[in-house]
Amino acid sequence: MRALSYQGPYKVRVQDKPDPRIEHPQDVVLKVTKTAICGSDLHLLHGLIPDTRVGCTFGHEFAGVVEELGPGVTNLKRGDRVVVPFNISCGACFYCKKGLTACCENSNPSSDIACGTFGYSHTTGGYDGGQAEYVRVPFANVGPMKIPEDMDEEDVLFLSDIFPTGYMGAEMGGIQPGDTVVVFGAGPVGLFAMKSAWLMGAGRVIAVDLQDYRLDFARKFAHVETLNFKDVDIVTAIKETTEGRGADVSIEAVGCEAEGSMLQRVLGLGLMAEAGATTALNWCMHATRKGGVISVVGVYGPPWNLVDIGTAMNKNQTLRLGQCNVKRYMPHLLDHIRKGRVDAKGLITHRFSLEDAPKAYDLFSKKQDGCIKCVLSPHA
Ligand code: NAD
Ligand code: ZN
Ligand code: ZN
């Protein structure tokens, strides 16, 4: 089959690889019909996720058709269309039973930190991902959700990750009716966090980014106020608009490649020179009021991160963070999509064949051509 694979920092290519097979009774092999590229894939592309091996197939956001089943799969049949959570979970361990599927003990037993994830390095189990014609899905009785007959793959594709992640980002913020919520990062995850903040009763939602086109998109898609941190001193601007106090809740949807720190500005350093940057997270601490909540969904790949934790401590802030427990949010968010409250597929700005995936990576990572979200069709 054809698959998009890692070739070292900043290099991916589409290559021939052996078709995946059933390796365990609870596996299915899925024929991938739609798969998306995520901001998390950019951290892999940029070499920031430990133990990303050459030849690894990327892709943790995908939907497709069940092609082959192991004898232990009872919830699915050949031909079923499904969307699959990015984290692999067993459904039966201590954490899965609590709904913390992102903490599953059995999908990556060699690690006490990271659960199994599709296409996300050997740190998360070394599973090949779904930016390919076919993918093996372990614990297939647990993760995959059947796609309703009247919906297509693109309608529900983002239930695999970014809609649940944005939603959990807002939920961890503990938003109270009327709260002012600031979302750092107007990428796909931030955009879903903004929509979710409204659903939870926020009184004001303010998006922060440095890309004007993304802030324009956020105004249209999520009806938020916007601030470009290239134009203003961001902490001052947020305080000025919140009676000097700061936001009630900040959501960090940027991660370890945040731009805009003083160090970068003063020294003119590039992105890689400051990988591990916590710019947005530190801005959250300074721009959130005392007693407020900071919710972090941005991914921090490198083990070094300069966090101004003393500020958060002195301001009595609550810090919550996490990889999304995707599975628990799927049914509820499917309902929001069905009822037309969230136009999830409205985020797709670019569609490509699998062969053109390297072009899609280039466009998405350079934030060119109005790119918000790229979707690949491996069998088109
Ligand atoms: P993206 O790269 O499309 O978006 C990030 C946005 O942040 C960009 O628009 C960029 O211009 C902006 N940005 C850069 N520096 C900034 C700063 N200092 N302040 C404000 N904005 C800044 O990525 P995405 O797909 O939206 O993902 C966002 C983050 O969420 C990534 O770190 C990704 O790995 C992470 N993520 C986490 C989970 C989870 O389970 N917790 C799931 C999916 C994605
Ligand atoms: Zn993702
Ligand atoms: Zn488990």
Automatic annotation (TrEMBL):
CC cofactor: Zn(2+)
SUPFAM superfamilies associated with the record: GroES-like, NAD(P)-binding Rossmann-fold domains
Keywords: Metal-binding, Oxidoreductase, Zinc
Domain Alcohol dehydrogenase-like N-terminal: 25-145
Domain Alcohol dehydrogenase-like C-terminal: 188-256
Record-level Gene Ontology MF annotations: oxidoreductase activity; zinc ion binding
InterPro entries (UniProt xref): ADH-like_C, ADH-like_N, ADH_Zn_CS, GroES-like_sf, NAD(P)-bd_dom_sf
Family: Belongs to the zinc-containing alcohol dehydrogenase family.
The name this protein goes by in its record: Glutathione-dependent formaldehyde dehydrogenase
Source organism per UniProt: Corallococcus macrosporus DSM 14697
Origin organism lineage: Bacteria, Pseudomonadati, Myxococcota, Myxococcia, Myxococcales
